[in-house]
Amino acid sequence: MTTTTPGPRALHAAVGTARTRVEGREKVTGAARYAGEIPFAGLAHGWLVLSTVTRGRVASIDTAPVLALPGVLTVLHHGNAPRLHTDYIGMLGTPPDPAAAVFQGDRVPFAGWPVALVVAETPEQAREAAESLVVTYEQEPHSTVLTTDDPAAYAAAGHMPAETGKGDLEAELAASAVVLDEEYTTPEEQHSMMEPHAATAVWDGGRLEVVDSNQGAGWVRSELAALFSLDASSVRVRSEHIGGGFGSKGLRAHQVSAVMAATALQRPVRVVMTRRQTFSLAGYRSPTAQRVRLGADPDGRLRALEHRSLNQTSTVYEFVEPSAGVARVLYDADAHHTANHVVRLDVPSPTWMRAPGEAPGSFAIEAALDELAERAGVDPVELRLRNEPEAGPVSGLPFSTNNLAACLREGARRFGWADRDPRPGLRRDGRWLLGTGMASASFGAGAMPSTALVTAEADGSYTVRIAAADIGTGARTALTLIAADALETTPERVRVRIGDSDFGPAMIAGGSMGTRSWAWAITEAASELLERLAGAPDIPPEGITVRSDSTAALGALAQKERHSFGAQFAEVAVDTATGEVRVRRMLGIFAAGRIVNPLTARNQLVGGMTWGISMALHEEAVRDRNTGRHYSPDLAGYHVATHADVPDIEADWVDDHDPDDPVGIKGVGEIGIVGAAAAVANAVWHATGVRHRNLPIRPDRIL
Ligand code: MOS
């Protein structure tokens, strides 16, 4: 049922057609250069040194022996690094994370905190010197374990209100025929992007240039300009190809330390994080402890809904994993209460990670709905259909479109849900117990101001310049299709250049808002350019360029709830002798706005669903409570789903054109992971009759 509504410019309909990546050939032939491999003359290499203790102070750093080693150029640390300006509010609405604004003091707030940068002529020399640098610490007792009843926990807002509430919860629970009160936990999870963070900083004629791997070149530029008290126009950040980000690629220690060293040495300096370093320096998803209370009438209609989530943050930066937020969209109830709480521990700062809040939050609420369905004797798909909200349950605003019911019905039809026997633990295939499960999904669909430059070239082609980021999503290709339609031409005549802060302010690749935000600005510039061309058919050698700023036009979005929706279905096989869980098939049907490029959109959705399998069964960053450090912070110890773990996954969509968007887009970056882990966990219950409320569902938990 893949359908695509024609856009406003149906005459030229590149949008909606499947296209391989415009830079695909460069990527598979190695011609595409990533931040850590672009050559620079006179390049020096920095290696970060991280604290080995979890809380305390740096007592001494013995630099002399290291400075005598071959090739070593300098050692930067809190005793000699320049003072940064950190008293500002950045794009995320917070001051910079002190873990990124490095070397400003001797305090150590967590294990893996950056204490020094060793710079040498070669990466090998830098590493050798960094590993032999002797740092001594005054150690203090630490606390790194998230506990549900920690009295230091407090309600925290982050990017949404900390708490919402309406109605009398206890009264509605007392009046409910079916009730549920359960706790769900999810572990610390790591982004594990393929390309670790890398940046090269160089001063070029009074201008700072940083070649980096990030989710927003303009974002990193403004943060670096603020930190180093530079005029934004004297900083340029480029980020052309990015090997994954998932929320982790913003301002980090690598860029800041590279700029410090390039300034001190007056030569280009590159800093690349190792995989192990990313475990403490690149953010992560906080573990969560969530309590869900539900009360329903005999037919499953919700009278009471409470979703409370606790997450951790560091002692130096507040980040909220807003897991209770998804319940504010998916379900209404007469009494409806949600809250996000946070507790400060001696741990690294968590950050945005694909579907921040929705990924762990949907595990809890969608597993709870499955339990409610069981207790009420109502089919899980039917239960969700009966609880479809008319409008935003908390906001009261109408939905721009809410096609969750269409996703549920289409998904159930294609998955063969109607044949399902709801009783658990009955189906066998040899040594395997079989079960199926499902869950709903929702993720916000917004747009943020962006600027675009669109040029009509003298040869009849077009060049689009926008500080967008393609973190592997296919954004560059999607924008090519969007620009082609907006310019009433073919994709072959459009060149899209991205990843350069000199192209002007633009939304980051984040919040599933990148493509839509950039498309808005490109569409505006293109339509103005077409008007200009109609009046001036002769194009001068330098071309005709129009610059747009979408800020004013975005006001139209304010008056409605905007979300993508989805329905996830999974079939699992469980071996109760070994504890092994295999996902046999998975289907996701999404309502995610107009689909720009079916090929890369499907990749995004399947990628998210794959991550949901991984979240359900494998991923767990484990910290030793005695040392405060991770066990095995690498991809040997941190299990992610590999090809052998992933069956055929089908992702498809229903027609869902956002009526207020010039192209009809919502966004596909994050919705694929939402609900996916719950669908797997619900299927494990159906197979075995045992509820697993703590992720991941490891073999030892099955046994
Ligand atoms: Mo995404 S977690 O908004 O990069």
From TrEMBL:
The keyword Oxidoreductase applies. Signal peptide: none annotated. Gene3D superfamilies: Aldehyde oxidase/xanthine dehydrogenase, a/b hammerhead, Aldehyde oxidase/xanthine dehydrogenase, molybdopterin binding domain. Residues 29-141 form the Aldehyde oxidase/xanthine dehydrogenase a/b hammerhead domain. Keywords: Molybdenum, Oxidoreductase. This is Xanthine dehydrogenase family protein molybdopterin-binding subunit. InterPro entries: Ald_Oxase/Xan_DH_a/b, Ald_Oxase/Xan_DH_a/b_sf, Ald_Oxase/xanthine_DH-like, AldOxase/xan_DH_MoCoBD1, AldOxase/xan_DH_MoCoBD2, AldOxase/xan_DH_Mopterin-bd_sf. It comes from Streptomyces rhizosphaericola.
